[in-house]
Amino acid sequence: KLFLIVIVDSLVHWADLEPVPQDDGPNPVVKIAYSEKFSDVYDYFRALLKKDERSDRAFALTAEAIELNAANYTVWHYRRVLLQALQKDLREEMRYITDIIEEQPKNYQVWHHRRMVVEWLNDPSEELEFIADILSQDAKNYHAWQHRQWVIQEYKLWDNELEFVEKLLEEDVRNNSVWNQRHFVISHTTGYSSPAILDREVQYCLNQIRKAPHNESAWNYLKGILQDRGMSSHPGLLEQVLELKETHCSPYLLAFLVDCYEDALENNNQKETLNRALEVCEYLAQEKDTIRKEYWLFLQRSLESRFGPSAASGEPLADGTEPPAGQQELS
Amino acid sequence: MLSPLQLEEFEQIDFLRDRHVRFFQRTLQVLPERYASLETTRLTVMFFAVSGLDVLDALDVIDRNNMIEWIYSLQVLPTEDQSNLSRCGFRGSSHIGIPYSVKGPGVLHPYDSGHVAMTYTGLTSLLILGDDLSRVNKQACLAGLKALQLEDGSFCAVPEGSENDIRFIYCAACICYMLDDWSGMDIQKAIEYIRGSMSYDNGFGQGAGLESHGGWTFCAIASLCLMGRLEEALSQRELDRIRRWCIMRQQSGFHGRPNKPVDTCYSFWVGATLELLDVFQYTNYEKNRNYILSTQDRLVGGFAKWPDSHPDPLHAYLGLCGLSLIGEPNLRKVHPALNITQRAFQHLQQLQQTWRDNAGTCT
Predict the structure, then answer these.
(1) Which of A30, A145, A298 is the closest to B211 by Cβ?
(2) Which chain A residues touch B39 with a CB distance below 8 Å?
(3) Which among B100, B210, B284 has CB closest to A24?
(4) Across the strands, what pairs with B165?
(5) Distance of alpha carbon B19 from alpha carbon B56, whole angstroms
């Protein structure tokens, strides 16, 4: 009986339309073997598309087409055309897109569609909560974070975001997406220029490192906020890091040390500083980060060439690269 | 005499060339319905298979001419009145329902247009198959490309509108590079967008403020290399910092973001970036190789993102490219920016020389 209903339905509602099949010619490549049902839906979709029909039956069919393949960007575009042409209820569309994203949160088209609807409604009020829900299922979903940044920036919803970041870092201090969000929020609100903020952030990092030493994200953040603000000149930092080296060592700590020494050498080329830097490189290469042994040895050679005694003569490195100009003579 | 355990270990790191050839052959034929989400991107799937076969030096197993015809049937050509120039390029498949045709003029259809990633993979696939691009309407492709660039320098994928980010800058750079014509994009604006996508941790995100990621870092660096602007756009200090970010992605194989699991495809995305930055030689080849091969599907061929997972064309192709970078025997070398074999790249260079010679003789 259900079979007959489907047949009658298509005869009644679609009789005027000539379905349009896909045409791959005589030698199709990467052909997908669709079932009859799948082909039917899309054959009618293609027919509607050709006519650019603006109707409720077309709108209903886009939902069927999306269910079969939510990655078809043409279907989504046509649906948006219909949403506007037929003056559809955008609140209802928000509910629809919410359900689809929950089912398929790693699809580009669905997030783009949501963004368009939010823009048309000019209403971001559901977004932060919705994205938080998606992130609760996958805290590193790139699309979710991207949408979140767009909403916050577009509608100036900065107020509670740092709190959100701190909550997520408590749940997983190794979530790199959250550290990135931290930088996003602070750089767009208070910024890092004030010594008070910078120091607060440096201490925050070091505290997280004490709790979870083997965490590249925290070290990347620390280096990131200091690398152009004088890594080696931040008061007390080098001492704190050298202290941590004894009890909370990691390849990231040691790499950070090398970078501190390099920064110091750029401002004041001292033999002792260079030796320390070379030592840490050796330690990394031979013991603490052996997978990158060749890189640390390369860095060692590079530092030697830039800041060592031979730098004055301007000899090229064994790698064939030239040391940069402007070497300080050792007094 | 090898012990059973040694034998098992040896087998586990054995590269199964023939299985991969058959995997790509099957990919080029028919895929089951569960691959429906690939419909609009079928041309990129073809690229993975065809370029994969090229890397394996196994292009002889396919009918190149028939495939070339199929690709040309996907070209969105100008209509009689040329009113659709800003929509030209290549489609990902026949999903819109345009009747099969390999020549112009284009058919007027309210929703037919090219997709930047399909134009890119259409051109690379034609090159790999030995075509001379003589049936590509280059001016139309470039007009279509130009229409996709936004004020901020990034590109959309399609003229109807889509998300915009660094992926499509890479596609655009490849297109301009192959067609030897940069009038299709505003290079300066693209460079600004790329620079703006550099994160505090010295990797590149999909756009400004976004988390740094191995795939987007590849798009950034490879684009700048193709433009010939790497050292103009980035200082030596920045390049050194980027090198550090990239080289820290190796865990065994490579991951795409700090504190994420490794995934075979990053052996290419990050590996190729490191190669472009001259420091791939300092990575650990053995651990990288062992990881990639641990994701090899010994039964059906191909590679997956993780061990004991289902292989797919993208990971199969990029796994091979990852092995090619470390010099795996019997694999062709891959051009790290354009992501085609050096052989296909040489074919492109010869073509471009012919174009220049012909342009010189026209008065």
Answers:
(1) A145
(2) 32, 69, 71-72
(3) B100
(4) B155
(5) 11
Chain segment B84-93, per-residue pLDDT in tens: 999 999 999 9
Answer yes or no: is A277 within a domain.
no
pTM over 0.90: yes
* Residue A176 placed within a domain: no
Q: Which helix (H) or strand (E) holds B285?
A: helix B285-294
Q: What is the CB-side half-sphere exposure of residue A164 using CA atoms within 13 A? A: 26
On whether residue A56 sits in a domain, the answer given is: yes
Handedness of CA A109, A115, A117, A120 (dihedral sign): negative
In this structure, the strands spanning B334-335 and B340-341 are: antiparallel
CB A123 within 8 A of CB A155: no
Cis bond upstream, residue B105 (ω within 30): yes
Q: What angle do CA A265, A268, A273 make, to 5 degrees?
A: 50
- Please indicate whether, in this complex, the C-beta atoms of A174 and B259 are within 8 angstroms of each other: yes
Distance CA B203, CA B254 (A): 14
Kindly identify which residue of chain A lies nearest to residue B236, measuring between CA atoms.
A324
- In a domain? residue A216: no
The total domain count for chain A is 1
pLDDT tens per residue across span B91-108: 999 999 999 999 989 999
Catalytic site includes residue A31: no
Contact list, B42 vs chain A (CB under 8 Å): 29-30, 32
Residues of chain B with confidence (pLDDT) below 50: 10-11
| Domain of A72, in residue numbers | 1-88
Give A298's contacts in chain B (Cβ within 8 Å): 279, 282
CA distance B269 to B220: 11
ipTM topping 0.85: yes
Instruction: Give the separation between CA B200 and CA B268, rounded to whole angstroms.
Output: 23
What gap in Å lies between CA B54 and CA B59, rounded to an integer?
Answer: 6
